[in-house]
UniProtKB/TrEMBL annotation:
Similarity section: Belongs to the FGGY kinase family.
Family annotation (InterPro entries): ATPase_NBD, FGGY_C, FGGY_Carb_Kinase, FGGY_N
Source species: Treponema ruminis
Name recorded for this polypeptide: Sugar (Pentulose or hexulose) kinase
Keywords: Kinase, Transferase
């Protein structure tokens, strides 16, 4: 759309906004009537490790939200010369899973426990056995049950628990609801009823009956909603929270809050069966919309979640991806500055990424581990970033960067081997998004080599989750009764450009050699965890 048209759209209060809470950035995107990004804002933040718990404070969450929205308002003002005062539709998404528990007065009972924590092993194992269904450590129900096992005093006072997206939505609308995709990372979903699995809820209540809590599980879970269903409106109090200046009007319609997995599926047009997407940034996960149930549960290796409209999805998830690489980029930036020189951070990042394509196919014998935190899929509860090489390894910059990118996908490959080799899952398309694909040629080539399948990127890949959430908000007000996959194809992706890369055989073979080294080297990572505090 032309600038003047977008200006009129915003002035008339018909713009649509999506805001997503990622691990390192809170991002806001305003889209036009063609569902294209028209303005953006962001806020940088970082989780803290406090008393062994990865967390963000309640204050950080709210101030980060306000900062990202204020940055969006600034971008609107600079581009279109007007103030953002009214929004037609709005949606919030965030990192899935985790644990935010509140009492009857709405008070947070314990600090937010994020998806990154690997402290619920006993609960995960017991619930997976009880349900005969994979319940990962990061799921909200694992955190709740682990708190019960730990005899934490706050549990008796829980009146409501939710995810980060659910918390923000509740604060701004008063509605205790959750999109089905995000809800599927709290507790198992019955894809026939599009709601929590009632049999599993009954089993859980029986499991904890002797505790004599005043609550039943179903009473403290958020209500499940499908994409396109009404999730409430922005209250006057909520508008003031989002925009403390008081300029934003109340009454905006809100889409069901979703998880970053769901918005990733939207951003990559991967909600139909036999489609898949891979999101790679601070963490990495690949999702495939299944044609049928898996033959068995793969506890700790494969999650079962849903699309935002409730279809069953197999998910291979790794906690660690590009976080350690970012630390190396910062180190290289320091070195450059120490010489009295300077380089744009984006250019440095892109230059390093591109160099990976010139390295030896197997990374010349180099072996890094990017484990800033534990990694359930490889059985490690903590992380120790490592770099290992033999004396005769080919230690070059290109090989070093290539190895960092390869190791970022090592845990993911562990899970995807199950889907491809043991379950014979078929996919027609696999689309990537996230920071890993900012330099598309490098990201697509490395990912294709790791997953030995063609990988595509849409021109909107860099927009990622917040744009995907804005599109879900657009679906809320523009669906006209059309199924989500049909509406996406017709209204969002009809003219999208796609780049597809299929790695060469030598690249695939090179990753396989590296992966064999990586798998054997996990013993080194385990030893580091055991011996280095």
């Amino acid at each position: 759309m032309a600038t003047e048209e977008i200006k009129k759209l915003i002035e008339s209060g018909n713009a649509i906004v999506g805001i997503e809470f990622g691990s390192t950035r809170i991002k806001a995107v305003l889209i036009d009537s063609n569902n294209a990004p028209a303005a953006q804002g962001s806020h940088t933040w970082e989780n803290s490790l406090i008393d062994g718990i990865w967390t963000y404070s309640q204050e950080e969450i709210i101030t980060g939200l306000q900062s990202a929205y204020a940055d969006l308002k600034r971008d609107v003002k600079e581009k279109y010369g007007i103030a953002l005062k009214k929004i037609r539709a709005l949606g919030f998404s965030a990192m899935m899973h985790g644990y935010l528990a509140f009492d009857k007065g709405g008070n947070l009972l314990v600090p937010f426990r994020t998806w990154r924590n690997t402290i619920t092993g006993a609960a995960s194992e017991k619930l997976s056995a009880l349900f005969g269904y994979p319940i990962p450590e990061r799921w909200s129900i694992s955190h709740l049950y682990q708190a019960i096992l730990n005899k934490e005093p706050h549990v008796k006072d829980v009146a409501f628990f939710t995810t980060l997206a659910g918390f923000i939505h509740w604060k701004l609308t008063g509605q205790k609801v959750l999109g089905i995709g995000d809800a599927s990372g709290m507790f198992p979903i019955d894809t026939a009823t599009k709601d929590y699995n009632k049999d599993f809820i009954a089993k859980f209540d029986s499991l904890i009956a002797d505790k004599k809590f005043s609550w039943k599980l179903e009473e403290i879970l958020p209500k499940v909603l499908l994409a396109g269903e009404d999730a409430g409106t922005l209250t006057a109090e909520g508008a003031k929270i989002l925009d403390p200046t008081g300029e934003l009007e109340a009454g905006t319609r809100l889409a069901p809050p979703e998880g970053d997995a769901g918005t990733g599926m939207i951003a990559t047009n991967a909600v139909a069966k036999r489609t898949g997407n891979v999101s790679a940034g601070t963490s990495v996960f690949a999702m495939v919309v299944l044609e049928k149930d898996l033959s068995k549960a793969y506890n700790g290796l494969i999650d079962l979640v849903t699309t935002p409209d409730g279809a069953l999805v197999a998910m291979a998830h790794a906690n660690n991806c590009m976080g350690e690489f970012d630390h190396w980029v910062n180190l290289f930036d320091e070195v450059i500055k120490a010489t009295g020189c300077s380089v744009d951070k984006g250019k440095l990042y892109g230059t390093l990424l591109k160099s990976a394509l010139t390295g030896d196919k197997d990374c010349g014998g180099l072996l890094p581990f990017n484990y800033l935190s534990g990694e359930s899929i490889t059985g490690l509860t903590e992380g120790r970033p490592l770099f290992v090489r033999t004396q005769h390894a080919n230690f070059t910059m290109a090989n070093f960067i290539r190895a960092q990118l390869f190791t970022a996908l090592g845990a993911l490959r562990t899970g995807m081997d199950i889907l491809f080799d043991k379950e014979n899952v078929k996919i027609d398309s696999l689309t990537g998004h996230g920071g890993f694909f900012k330099t598309a040629e490098t990201g697509l080539t490395i990912m294709s080599a790791a997953l030995h399948t063609p990988v595509s990127a849409l021109e909107t890949a860099g927009e990622g989750g917040p744009w995907g959430m804005a599109v879900l908000a657009s679906y809320l007000v523009n669906a006209n009764g059309k199924p989500l996959d049909v509406w996406l194809n017709e209204s969002v992706f009809a003219t999208s450009k796609k780049t597809t890369v299929e790695a060469k055989k030598e690249d695939v073979d090179g990753f396989n050699e590296f992966f064999a080294r990586y798998t054997k080297g996990l013993a080194i990572e385990k030893a580091a965890i055991e011996n280095i505090e």
